[in-house]
Amino acid sequence: MSAQESAARTWSPPLPAAAGFEHTVIETAGIRTHLAAIGKGDPVVLLHGFPSHWWQWRTIAPAIAAAGYRVICPDLRGSGWTQAEDPRFRRDAMRDDLLALFDILGIDRAHLVAHDLGAVVANQFCYAHPERVRTAVQLAVPPGFMRFSPRLLPAFAHMPRMLMHRQGQSLRWLYGPRYAAVPMDEATIDAYLCVQERPEVDRAVRALYRGMIVPEVVRLARGDYRRMRLQPPTLAVFGRRDGPFTEPVVRGICRDHQECAERFELAFVDDAAHFVTDDAPDAVAALALDWLGRAG
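The structure assignment produced for this chain is given below.
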């Protein structure tokens, strides 16, 4: 057994295998955040989606690090190997966790690359603390200033099951063909869901949706963010097979971005669905590096 494999097994449950990452725990008020980091240079913070964790970036983070960046992948509150004292969720709790993490790590400004739940957190952070963000890449989630459309309702079809989630219920269906264009093998799904064995992570599912996701969807639907201005340069990326987020729909809901954002662009990835980071990691890394270089 290598030293890295031995270290991975000291975590409970053991960390999935991913070469080159350093693992640490950062303590801030009320939360112990697990971080996986790789590389040296300007900071790039990668925020995972639901119900994933840092390992979602196992291919993308090394590619970004190889271009000369320090890539930091935290497990968000209620996910992965992070531990929070308070099991409840406020709408902006993860945003505040991220700010505390920036402060304790001495990060003045960073690039943000985020997927799904992480993109919701990144969106909040960009509006609340634009001076701390150099650029942002949002994956599979529209910008906060989008025009809400009934054509997006199928994107919320999973929410009733999440709101009624009971401890011990499997989340494997979330990694099925509706959300992934490239079928995930059982070992990959097991690596994502191994942390559901931790009761605090399993209990967090319903609390997350009731305390954060629903209130945030309400804000999006009533256009709260359209009354603000998105300052960090932002790229929104979607898989072309991502259900209701077809290119015409996405371009339609973002059609007046010049009025709402300083700099905003869209990109679409072939043969990818909601889990674009697993379907097309090389394409995501290339798009992120291009945006960091052009907009940062």
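Interim note for the steering committee: The first helix runs from residue 3 to 8. The mean pLDDT is 95.
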